[in-house]
């Protein structure tokens, strides 16, 4: 075999690549935070050695989601102790949960879209530093106003999970995307559940300040683990500014049929979820059950079953076209809600079954909707996720207000039946747009009825549509205001591809 410099007998010489056709290069970042902190060598971006998104990193994302989102919920069992410690009435401390949620919503709109603009490793670590450090103020302050201001800011910088979710979608292989998302979303749900339990137990035997010392510790643990495990990738959409990111995010809210459909479904689904849990408290505390507050709180632990089933549900979603996975989840959740309407005020066993079923299929619906939303454009996943999560907040407010009003005026059964109305709305929205519609098709059905993702992928590869689909995805990224392809990992120009093909033939 001849050397690369001298072609062998009968071989054609390989022309040199013209200077303008050479592959683009990238500068590997070695430090972060304005050059002061070194990035571990194995985590530095290298286009020749893509980082493997394995179980360890996925578990870290889930763990981080659990104990960052918990910042929003530690306060809920502690309001009475806050009132006594700050020497104010209940109405004054009742503002704290609202401020946390308002801060979180603000962070989703103004901070989480930065995932489409800056390096996400650095953004995640920076937010972890802020949230952990600001929590020190909550633990030591004796001033309610300071506590409230810090609560709002901490809510805003606790959007790390909403940056990790799109990052997981970017890093995970397409065939494992829903499974990866399921771990992060399960972490979110577990954080909501476990925060109240931890806060209640620690405050019962020590002080409410110990709860926040615990929060400081786990957030710095997330920071250390993130520094050691999260890979560095170049920023996306370098040609865009922060305000253009926000402008395009607003544009997506009325120009993307998939996103609008998913958001309308998510809104109604979250309204069902919060209506169920708020009115369940009223139902269990009154006739015929008359349970104590502690017993009612333990029903939330049943939700751990849904969290545990998250990865299994994610695997199912990975095998189905997202539209079909959503449809299965909606019909199953409707069936469990019907049990609540019929027997919720008659049998506590029926309530337990309903809690388990609704948690599992609510999570399945959330994952399938997120998978479909993230398929719109890889370049805009942080912005798309921000709009999707905002629909969740609106649904929560709507479900709490409507459910409480119906329960107090008409009773538990009409309040439960209200959820059936919400599920009916979801089914109508789903059938307005079929499973294989093109990106900008608002109504109708296209592309057949096949439900299995593997069959669709095999057909695309066989017919040559696979490459066309990839080119189409690149065009969609450009339409979204940028690209996700890091510098140095761009598709080679035609001349470079020909040279590489010639080189491979010569080696053979």
Short overview:
Residues 50-438 form the Major facilitator superfamily (MFS) profile domain. The protein is mostly helical and 508 residues long. It has 21 helices and 2 strands.
Structural class per helix/strand content?
mainly alpha
Pattern of helices and strands: EEHHHHHHHHHHHHHHHHHHHHH
**Biggest sheet overview:** 2 strands, antiparallel
The CATH class of the largest domain is identified as: Mainly Alpha
Tell me the overall shape.
globular
State the total count of DSSP E strands.
Answer: 2
Determine the fraction of residues in helical runs and give it as a percent range: 55-70%
Q: Report strand order across the widest sheet.
A: 1-2
What distinguishing features does this structure have?
disordered N terminus, single chain, membrane, two-stranded antiparallel ribbon, 508 residues, Growth Hormone, Chain: A, mainly alpha, 2 domains, MFS_dom
Summarize the topology:
Blueprint: E1 31-32, E2 37-38, H1 55-69, H2 79-86, H3 90-93, H4 95-110, H5 120-140, H6 144-157, H7 160-171, H8 177-205, H9 208-229, H10 242-255, H11 257-285, H12 293-298, H13 303-308, H14 310-319, H15 322-343, H16 348-374, H17 381-410, H18 412-431, H19 453-463, H20 465-479, H21 494-507
Antiparallel strand pairs: 1-2
């Amino acid at each position: 075999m001849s050397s690369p410099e001298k072609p062998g007998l009968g071989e054609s010489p390989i022309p040199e690549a013209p200077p303008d056709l050479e592959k683009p290069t990238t500068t590997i970042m070695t430090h972060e935070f304005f050059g002061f902190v070194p990035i571990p060598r194995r985590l530095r971006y290298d286009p020749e050695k893509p980082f493997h998104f394995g179980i360890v990193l996925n578990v870290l994302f889930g763990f981080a989601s659990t104990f960052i989102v918990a910042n929003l919920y530690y306060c809920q069992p502690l309001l009475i102790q806050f009132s006594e410690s700050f020497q104010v009435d209940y109405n004054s401390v009742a503002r704290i949960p609202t401020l946390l949620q308002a801060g979180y919503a603000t962070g989703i709109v103004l901070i989480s879209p930065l995932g489409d603009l800056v390096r996400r490793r650095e953004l995640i670590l920076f937010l972890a530093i802020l949230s952990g450090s600001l929590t020190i103020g909550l633990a030591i302050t004796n001033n309610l106003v300071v506590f409230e201001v810090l609560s709002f800011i901490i809510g805003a910088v606790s959007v790390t999970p909403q940056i990790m979710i799109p990052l997981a979608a970017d890093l995970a292989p397409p065939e494992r995307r829903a499974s990866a998302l399921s771990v992060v979303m399960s972490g979110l749900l577990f954080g909501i559940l476990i925060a109240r339990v931890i806060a209640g137990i620690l405050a019962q035997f020590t002080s409410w300040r110990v709860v926040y010392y615990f929060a400081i510790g786990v957030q710095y643990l997330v920071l250390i683990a993130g520094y050691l495990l999260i890979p560095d990738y170049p920023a996306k959409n370098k040609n865009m500014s922060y305000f253009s990111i926000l402008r395009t995010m607003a544009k997506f809210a009325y120009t993307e049929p998939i996103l609008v459909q998913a958001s309308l479904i998510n809104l109604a689904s979250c309204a069902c979820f919060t209506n169920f849990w708020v009115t369940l408290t009223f139902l269990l505390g009154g006739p015929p059950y008359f349970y104590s507050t502690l017993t009612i709180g333990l029903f939330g632990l049943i939700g751990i079953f849904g969290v545990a089933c998250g990865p299994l549900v994610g695997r199912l979603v990975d095998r189905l076209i997202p539209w079909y996975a959503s449809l299965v989840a909606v019909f199953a959740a409707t069936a469990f809600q019907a049990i609540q309407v019929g027997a919720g005020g008659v049998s506590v066993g029926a309530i337990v079954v309903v809690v388990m079923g609704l948690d599992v299929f609510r999570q399945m619906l959330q994952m399938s909707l997120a998978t479909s939303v993230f398929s719109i454009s890889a370049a805009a996943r942080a912005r798309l996720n921000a709009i999707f999560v905002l629909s969740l907040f609106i649904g929560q407010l709507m479900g709490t207000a409507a459910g409480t009003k119906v329960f107090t005026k008409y009773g538990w059964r009409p309040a439960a039946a209200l959820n059936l109305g919400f599920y009916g709305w979801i089914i109508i929205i789903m059938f307005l747009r079929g499973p294989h519609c093109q990106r900008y098709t608002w109504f109708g059905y296209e592309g057949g009825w096949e439900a299995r993702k593997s069959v669709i992928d095999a057909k695309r590869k066989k017919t040559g549509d696979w490459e066309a689909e990839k080119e189409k995805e690149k065009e969609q990224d450009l339409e979204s205001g940028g690209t996700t392809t890091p510098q140095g990992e761009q598709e080679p120009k035609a001349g470079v591809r020909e040279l590489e093909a010639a080189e491979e033939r010569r080696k053979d």
